[in-house]
Batch of 2 targets.
Target 1
Amino acid sequence: MKIIDGLKLDFKDVLILPKRSKAVSRSEVVVTRKFKNKLGKDIEVVPIIAANMDTVATFDMAVALAKHGCMTALHKHYTVEEYVEFFTKNQDISKYVFYSLGINEKDIEKLKAVQNVCGENISAICIDVANGYTDHFVEKVKRIIAQVGSKFIMAGNVVTPNMVEELIMAGVDIVKCGIGPGSACTTRVKTGVGYPQLSCVLECADAAHGMNKYICSDGGCTVPGDVAKAFGANADFVMLGGMLAGHKECNGKVITKYYMGDEVIRNNSLDSTPLLKKFDPVVDEKKFVEFYGMSSKVAQEKHGNGLAEYKASEGKSVLVPYRGEVAGTIQEILGGVRSCCTYVGTSKLKDLGKCTTFIRSSVQENRVFG
Ligand code: 5GP
């Protein structure tokens, strides 16, 4: 047994120091960045990625986020026909879309089938497992890379520089970093395993940048300020699940609850309830959408054969308030990141890391009004 004693930090443990600078207007801040793919070609995008969860990263989400230059790692549960139709119809946004898969044979065969019909329309691949530390994973990553050629490859998840380097040596362009910080994740509670996300990003980015490759900070962002902190810690990409959940584009079932004070008096839209509301102004109506972790019991029952006896679910299922179209949320996130750039005196997101000094802080927000 060994203890690593040095202090490791999360987003909630720091703030970003404002710096004296020439005035930069928020409207001048460039939030796109150029990334080199394996062929040396530049791909210019806003480096925010919707997480490959079936309650977030839908085809509709990909189309909506591409309008803002943002990316989507599509969830892996569409059929071959559905992927083929999407990639064929949406060639103009292909640079914003990752095709995601795990490492089981079924996933690899499905990718082959999609690739055979519309492979040229897929620019980027996301190879995703909960634990990126096994030899088996590295071998499968190499095999998938050999299968897809020069596409932009993101793979993970890991949290330490040694494994970032190993994946880059295996041919990965973007290493996905984060174990346990996710909003629908229970890994830290169930297994005790994890790594504070800000330190994970700082350390993993250092390793990847030394090899001229990239990292994606995956999980743990709860507010736009956390996204700015992840970029400030030198993440090249930031992946978001919970912050993009609950929108129209998530295509989840919308559940309506009717409240009297704090008490739920009825779930869903039973015929008589709107009448009740019409005549009783004390009845309040709130809409929610389901959001669950991809290794939660709900996800495993939906997409697999339920939870295997030897496995614990490492994800949870929650109802999040319905938030309408994702455009407003993206504007809020990008607005926060732009503003952060002006506070530290840069007009380019690309330089945010260089301009960032973190201050350790035990308080983030004045909670007097909740
Ligand atoms: P969020 O932005 O919601 O904090 O984190 C999103 C990330 O949580 C995903 O990209 C993925 O890495 C992780 N995640 C999603 N579902 C699960 C799950 O069921 N269990 C665990 N351990 N992590 C999950």
Note: The pocket of guanosine-5'-monophosphate is lined by residues 51, 53, 130, 157, 178, 181-185, 187, 218-221, 239-243, 293-296, 314-315 (CB under 6 Å).
Target 2
Amino acid sequence: MKPTGSPRKTAFIRSYGCQMNVYDSERMADLLTSEGYEIIDAPGDADLVILNTCHIREKAAEKVYSELGRLRIGKAHAQTEGRNPLIAVAGCVAQAEGEEMIRRAPAVDLVFGPQVYHRLPQLLVRASAGEKVVETEFPTEEKFDALPNDRRSVTSARAASAFLTIQEGCDKFCTFCVVPYTRGAEFSRSPEEIVDEAGRLVAAGVSEITLLGQNVNAYHGVDGAGRGHDLPDLLDTLADIDGLARLRYTTSHPRDMTQKLIAAHRDNDKLMPYLHLPIQSGADRILDAMNRKHTASEYLTILADLRAARPDIAISSDFIVGFPGETEAEFEATLRIVESVGYAQAYSFKYSPRPGTPAADSDAQVPEPVKAERLAWLQDLLERQQFAFNRNTENVVLPVLLDRVGRMDGQLAGRTPYLQAIQVDAPMALLGTIQQVRVEKAGPHSLFGVLAGGAVPVNTETRITLLEGMTS
Ligand code: 5AD
Ligand code: SF4
């Protein structure tokens, strides 16, 4: 902590990749704030710059090195003025590359993985003394215990919607994926700890919580009495929190989509009708080579059950095209499954070989131009589906959580229950509230709406059925 009277130290944190990194960055901000740092919006004047990195695809990792190139120049300039800003690399690239990072980017002072950021204050003391620090262990339990609670409510009060990590790591070992190596084995936080954190968020004005985990539906927390809690149990417990209006969870694996969790989509009124359930490919041979442990038809059965439980549920997915050995016919199987599902939204990627993962060693790599062409076909279809889903909500009145300032003066931005982004003509005073909104116009990626009928009290969001006639 700096002595009173001296100027406050400043820190800038840039987050790459998934929502779990966004959550981790917020927790680092909390930790630094409690250490006397001020969090600022640009790297230029910062005493500490942290890049919280993503290693999932090559492009994501390369972005980090370009940014480090720019930061090196900024650091050299600052040194001519007698300042010595520290550059830290956190997250999954840090975990995967460790020492190598400092060799490749010597301006970096500090490299630490996703499981040790609670030690940041000690690491900073060492880095400030001139040591090049590399910390990439996996003591998960210790991290959540060691993070400060008190500041969380302060920094998170920025928004009405917040993330809460309940589970980390992955034991699935899909053959394309680095997560089991960078985030480590599966670990679930205790329900008490999660309910505590959720309560603090709600007390700070949060009304929507998205539970996060690389395999969130594999959640299996144990309470103080030694009892096990799965995700539907946890969702039930959280739904009892007064003032909490909406619950979401991401990302799920089809193998862990139990009947009990599917039933929660029917029975838990606070659980929003949206599910991100990645399939990756529509071809069984590829799913097997990916080690996904399910077939395309098993996935479709899960969706049928979900739609029986909650007819208007919006479905989202991740897809990989050009996995090693993928034939034209296998790619077409992916297009067919997309056609049969009717996605509300989706993410799709060209396969990117990740060092250390089994698929990267395959000698059946698909040529880049083929991957690019397949991705373009798939994205075209997915875009059309998203637009169709959005158009289906035109003229419908939906409860919208207005959680951000809008694009234009006099507008607020928010999310429908189906996670559609929407701009609404609404006064600033309604920021953070849930309002009934009539969707006036649907675009491919977002909606525009007007206020229609007032505020929606917590726990009374209306259920509607939109998907009729949309799926084929
Ligand atoms: N190449 C391309 N996409 C990948 N993903 C994960 N690993 C890779 C890879 N090596 C995608 C998957 C996953 C999402 C988070 O990123 O679709 O669900
Ligand atoms: Fe990666 Fe598969 Fe685990 Fe998801 S389930 S994090 S894709 S290994």
Note: The CA atoms of residues 33 and 39 lie 7 Å apart.
